[in-house]
Design goal:
The complex is a heterodimer of chains A (about 170) and B (about 350). Chain A has helices spanning about 30-45, 45-55, 60, 65, 80-85, 90-95, 95-110, 120-145, 145-165, and strands at about 15-20, 20-30. In chain A, a hairpin with a 2-residue loop joins strand 1 (about 15-20) and strand 2. Chain A has 9 helices and 2 strands. Chain A has a two-stranded antiparallel sheet with strand order 1-2. By secondary structure, chain B is an alpha+beta fold. Chain B is globular, with a radius of gyration of 21 Å. The chains are: A mainly alpha (about 170), B alpha+beta (about 350). Chains A and B meet through helix 1, helix 2, helix 7 and helix 8 of A and helix 4, strand 6 and strand 7 of B.
């Protein structure tokens, strides 16, 4: 049997295609099948499924202008995202946050990361938390009029702020 | 290290040195990472892709564990070489398409591989023999920490590591194991097992990942969720579930042996006989028959062969491997002849 597409090579791949309930059988040579395969993959993939889910941000979709919302950093629109199922850059997560939160919730059942973080960021987060605790203590000591303690805390805060500004 | 060196060696996972390697072929962990200062690969301009490739290449090659690694630009490879790398599980099928500015780094023993400019800027993979996700995680965790000190990864406190597709956000981690489950297939229990795992947040795929069909009774099982759980917890969850599937396969093997020994041995020996004497054999038939022979070796029915050899045959009988060994392009019919020849030779 020769290939249905090129009509030259021996057909070694046999495909059944269903388009609008119309069933067609295809007998292809390896080369044509590969081309066809690439076509089929681009037909339907994870991104299509995702695009369906991307409509989930219902509130977000109420106003048409939001769909036109563009990421200031990379220029991707939400419409683009719905088409390709991929975001344009890290900043997109902030730009489209309102729509992405329900989507992430649907995919992962959660919207808060609690795993590993890059060391550089872990340090920043740690310093920020430390500062918050110290500032709280400072407020309390001022309320209690414990000015000696407050002065110590103030110096500590300044020291940390100086370090993180470096 | 070159592509030809790969051809003349076997990866660590093929040698079956890991735990439970009668049922678990390999354990794999991959992390998706992106550079904070560039658009994701599909949305980046050619110039930006070039810059990403250069930055990622430099950092990757300075990682301790990748000192003696091989680095290739996929766009400069011919189609057979690309296919060859996919067949060895060192990169995805997607990585072959639009290959300009795509890169691949492969470490010693093929345990570590890093794809650059695939869906994400970096796709780091660690693959270990047998049931060994924890060790794979340790290796990849260390390497990722090292890379994270050199490169600024896109990361947010809320959503974790930011990835091109939201399905990978958070940990950016996919942990998977490749299982060989012939007895669950024969006893028609596999459908139930696969159905059950999807309810537990896991997913099953074929030999070559997303979108590929299961063949040779191989199933790749991985986590679906990457956001909201710690990496160690995700791995622990998979390990617990896989352990149960392994036990299930084990008891199905025992049942088959005790209730249907002759019929099972007959199928195994016929498969072995066909492989040892065929002069023309397709890759589909090869995978199906090798699967039976592997079961035969695992059960101690076939003593003339070992697991590592059968694993090697699974890999080297694939189309691009055959063509690389012959150093020329072979049509499908020529490959079927060459494949049969190699199998006869190896099974001696």
């Amino acid at each position: 049997m020769v290939c249905n597409i090129c009509g030259k090579n021996q057909a070694t791949v046999h495909l059944t295609e269903i388009i609008d309930e119309q069933i067609t059988e295809l007998h292809l040579c390896e080369e044509c099948a590969q081309k066809k395969g690439a076509q089929m993959e681009s037909h339907f993939g994870l991104s299509d499924l995702l695009a369906g889910l991307a409509d989930l941000g219902t509130q977000f979709n109420k106003t048409k202008t939001d769909i036109k919302l563009k990421c200031p950093k990379c220029g991707l629109t939400y419409e683009d995202f719905k088409k390709v199922g991929r975001l344009g850059c890290g900043e997109c997560y902030t730009t489209f946050k309102e729509a992405l939160v329900p989507l992430l919730k649907r995919i992962h059942g959660s919207t808060q990361h609690c795993g590993k973080s890059p060391k550089k960021i872990a340090r920043v987060v740690k310093a920020r938390n430390e500062l918050e605790v110290l500032k709280e203590k400072l407020q309390k000591s001022i309320q209690k009029e414990d000015f000696e303690e407050a002065a110590k805390l103030r110096d500590k805060i300044r020291e940390i702020e100086k370090k993180s500004n470096k | 290290m070159t592509l030809d060196d790969l051809l003349n060696n076997t990866g660590e996972w093929i040698r079956c040195t890991g735990p439970v390697s009668d049922i678990v072929m390999s354990s794999r962990v991959r992390l998706a990472r992106n550079l904070a200062n560039y658009p994701f690969a599909h949305w980046a301009s050619k110039k930006e892709q070039e810059a990403i490739l250069a930055a990622a290449k430099e950092s990757t090659l300075s990682v301790k564990k990748l000192k003696d690694s091989m680095f290739v630009e996929i766009g400069k490879l011919d189609p057979i070489d690309k296919q060859f790398l996919v067949e060895r599980h060192l990169m995805s099928k997607e990585h072959m398409i639009d290959a300009e500015n795509k890169g691949l780094c492969v470490g010693q023993d093929e345990i570590i591989s890093i794809m650059i400019n695939e869906e994400d800027h970096l796709r780091i993979q660690v693959m270990k023999s047998g049931f060994n996700l924890k060790e794979a995680w340790q290796i990849i965790d260390d390497m990722d920490t090292e890379l994270g000190n050199l490169l600024d990864f896109a990361y947010s406190v809320d959503f974790g590591y930011l990835t091109a597709c939201p399905t990978n956000a958070g940990t950016g981690m996919r942990a998977s194991v490749m299982l060989h489950l012939p007895s669950l297939v024969m006893t028609k229990q596999i459908g139930k097992v696969l159905q059950a795992i999807t309810k537990l947040g896991l997913t099953a795929r074929g030999l070559y990942g997303e979108g590929t069909e299961a063949s040779g009774n191989f199933f790749q099982i991985s986590n679906q969720v990457s956001l909201g759980h710690k990496e160690e917890d995700i791995i622990d969850n998979i390990e617990r579930i896989i352990k149960q599937i392994v036990d299930h396969e084990q008891s199905a093997r025992e049942t088959l042996l005790s209730q249907n020994r002759e019929a099972l041995e007959d199928r195994i020996w016929r498969a072995y006989g066909t492989l040892k004497s065929a002069h023309i054999i397709t890759s589909t038939e090869t995978i199906d028959l090798l699967s039976l022979v592997r079961l035969g070796v695992d059960l101690g029915v076939i003593k003339q062969s070992d697991r590592a050899l059968i694993n090697e045959l699974f890999v080297i009988t694939q189309p691009a491997h055959l063509q690389k060994m012959e150093r020329k392009k072979l049509g499908p019919n020529q490959r079927d002849v060459k494949r049969a020849e190699i199998i006869r030779e190896k099974l001696g």
